Amino acid sequence: MDPNFRIGGILQFLTFLSIWYVLSLKEEKVPSPSVKEEDFSQVYSSFLTTFYNSVISSQLGEEAFKFTEFIKRSGIENRVLFERNKVVFKGTEDLDIAELIRRNLKLFEEMSIDQEIVDHYLRVLNSADKMGLGWRLDILVKENEEFLKKSDLLYGISGGRFLRKVVEDRSLEGLDDIDACLKIYKRILLTVVGKIKEKDEFRERLSRYYIAQSMEITNYDEVSMKGVKDYVLKISEDQRLSLIIESFNSILSWVYGRVLSDVEEDIDEVLSGLRLVLTLNKDRAVDLGVYPTLLGTLTTKIPKAQVHKLYSDYLEELVEERTRELREAQESLIQSQRLAAIGEAAAMVGHDLRNPLQAIVNMLYLAKMKLRSSPNRDLEEILETIRSQVEYMNKIVSDLQDYARPLKPTLVETSLNQIISDVLSTIKIPENVKVSVEIGKDYPKLIVDPSFMKRILTNLVTNAIQAMPNGGRLTITASETPEYALISVQDTGVGIPKEHQSKIFQPLFTTKSKGQGLGLPVCKRLVEALGGSITFESEVGKGSTFTIKIPLKPKASTEQGYASKIPEEIRKFYRRFEPQEAYIPSSK
Predict the structure, then answer these.
(1) Rounded CA gap, 212 and 200, in Å?
(2) pLDDT tens-digit map of 20-37
(3) Which of 1, 129, 188, 540 has a 20 to 30 A CA-CA distance from 238?
(4) 175 and 118, same structural domain?
(5) Does residue 179 share a domain with residue 131?
């Protein structure tokens, strides 16, 4: 064989391998980061410079301290230089960008960094995403999801690409209408601002609107509402919300008109961000009127098919809202009917049972007197059983009446320690239950109705004991705030299952074989009659803690709680038969 042929064949074979290797690389599309580490360093430097300029322009020394503390606690003090009013971040190959971001996000929340500064951190997150952090960024977003939602950053990372993984966003709860409305529009803008090519024209457009003239749109696609609320508050209160909605609907109409006119843009992709923002914030968006008015404004700017999709989402939410309202109205009606029935039953029971109970008690007393002259242990035990059962029946009648009738507490200065001592002396404490009262002798006196407090604590202590059939610890503690006394009854019992926790203050709800389901509802009514409230925490297998909050300086007594819901005819019916509580002598 010709040696020249052999060499030529080998060269051809090697050439073939080279071509195959290049093609295979292209086939696999091996990603190469579009942003290099030095590019990330430049972006991070710009953020630090913005942070630094913001704090030095503040006249509060504390703000300047925050910048220094942020650098130190982020672990980058050796990487930061100052050059001509500019902060330079020197990133090196050993920089763990994911860990740096994790620290930064925690510090924003812990140090209460100003929202305007946090807004500018979006450039850092977007740069990290372009670097190809992949699953590490996914984990960071998941770990810090609540903060990223609250700070609006989640809506801007790569145009909101992480929003599809979010189940719900409750970060607008608790905000006033103005703040919630501005946040909704800011979040919508964050998902689309990156697609606006004419940024300068957009900024000029914003300057035409009175409330938007101070807004900042950065070259990093960040949206800052700096100063917007200040302008809003200068407007007449009854016009503020309508002006915000009218102005931003007009702004968004221009934005989507421009973006969708670009043939290169995918319409579904552009509008998916809008749909996600409206879906995640739909409760407030519907309540404030943002949802329907914005859709009405956009009908001329987006294709009909997309309009139908958006309206479909809106109508679905509207149906859900009306269904909730009907369900709540039905539950309220059922509760009112149940309350009226309890009121009528209480009046009947009070009249028809109290007098016979008193007669039984009187006969028991006479029988005990007779037994003194000729003791009979078996008979004494029988009489004691009758007495305890009569006492239980009397409690049922009292609970019914206390729940149904209007309550008018007689407020007097009372010692909490004395009330607790009286309550514990009347309750039989099992030997396997250890009682601990942790209240200082100098605890301030309460201005309450002593009988109400005794009924409340008797019910709570009795429930706590019943929750510990195998024994445990019962702890009664008290603390105070400038306005309230806080009294807690804690047990180490079986706890309350989650499915029952929303029902325990409803009348007639009980899981006990021997119980009427009135103890805790009565407690709630008595506490509310004193101007207070009752809450609880419970975990199955660990126990429950009930806490009552009573004002230290109560307002003038008024009928409170369920009493105000009782029909007047039921009250009149009840008053005709209002007997005195049966007196039951103690066996002690």
Answers:
(1) 15
(2) 443 443 333 333 334 455
(3) 188
(4) no
(5) no
Q: Are residues 119 and 194 in the same domain?
A: no
**Domain total in the chain:** 3
**115 shares its domain with 169:** no
Confidence of residue 465 (pLDDT cuts 50, 70, 90): very high
- Residue range 366-384: mean pLDDT, rounded: 80
Closest to 567 in 3D by CA, of 409, 345, 339, 397: 339
- For residue 434, the domain's CATH number is 3.30.565.10
Together in a domain, 129 and 173: no
- Percent of the chain residues topping a pLDDT of 90: 40
Report the SS3 class of residue 196: coil
> In the listed set 241, 272, 302, which residue is the last one of a domain according to the structure?
302
43 located within any domain: yes
Residue 136 sits in the same domain as residue 175: no
Q: Give 530-536 contacts, CB < 8 A, sequence gap 24+.
A: 530/409, 530/411, 530/448, 530/449, 530/452, 530/453, 530/554, 531/555, 531/557, 531/560, 532/484, 534/505, 536/496, 536/501, 536/504
d(CA 187, CA 162): 13
Which pLDDT belongs to residue 265?
Answer: 67
Q: Which residues contact 354 (CB under 8 A, 6 or more apart)?
A: 397, 579, 580, 581, 582
Q: Tell me: pLDDT of 10 over 80.
A: no
Average pLDDT over residues 163-179: 91
Angle between helices 304-373 and 267-280 (to 10 degrees): 20
Could you tell me the pLDDT band of residue 301, with boundaries at 50, 70 and 90?
confident
Q: Which of 239, 248, 306, 249 lies closest to 272 in space, CA to CA?
A: 306
> Are residue 548 and residue 511 in the same domain, yes or no?
yes
Tokens linked to 64: 């300047």
Alpha helices (H) along 405-558? 416-426, 450-466, 498-501, 519-529
Residue 502 belongs to some domain of the structure? yes
Question: Average pLDDT, whole number, for the chain?
Answer: 80
Residue 270, domain extent: 165-302
Q: Mean pLDDT over residues 50-76, rounded?
A: 83
Higher pLDDT, 433 or 369: 433
461: left (phi over 0), alpha (psi -120 to 50) or beta: alpha
